[in-house]
Amino acid sequence: MNWKLICKLEEIPQLGSRVVHWPERGKIAVFRTSDDEVFALHDKCPHKGGPLSQGIVHGKRVTCPLHGWNIGLDDGQAVAPDVGGCKKFEVKVENGLVLIAE
Questions:
Q1: Residue range 35-48, pLDDT digits in tens
Q2: Contact indicator for 78, 86 with CB cutoff of 8 Å
């Protein structure tokens, strides 16, 4: 698997995100939890397309800023009773650098 450098871990705020613009994939939101775990999802809520990157990160979930849907960061799936999901991307941290699978 090939990996593409995104940024330094410290460039993503804890309990926050940053957006990567990838021409072939669209906007990808890269999230950082309070435990420095990193996840990457398509930056579009499955409900009405809200920008997940602007949502509130809590635990391993993000709450969409438009209508309050909770999306699992580890699988991109809406938390019940809501249904639907968004694409998840493989991401890892090595030596303080965040990389995403190409």
A1: 999 999 999 999 99
A2: no
The sign of the CA dihedral 46, 27, 76, 72 is negative
pTM over 0.70: yes
Pick the CATH number of 3-101 from 3.40.367.20, 2.102.10.10, 2.130.10.10, 2.60.40.10: 2.102.10.10
Tens-digit pLDDT profile for residues 18-71: 999 988 889 999 999 999 999 999 999 999 999 999 999 999 999 999 999 999
Could you give the maximum distance between any two Cα atoms of the chain, in Å? 39
Give the integer Cα–Cα distance in Å for 21 and 42: 10
- Which helix (H) or strand (E) segment holds residue 88: the answer is strand 88-89
Strand order in the sheet with 97-101: 3-8, 97-101, 91-94
* SS3 per-residue string spanning 85-98: ECCEECEEEECCEE
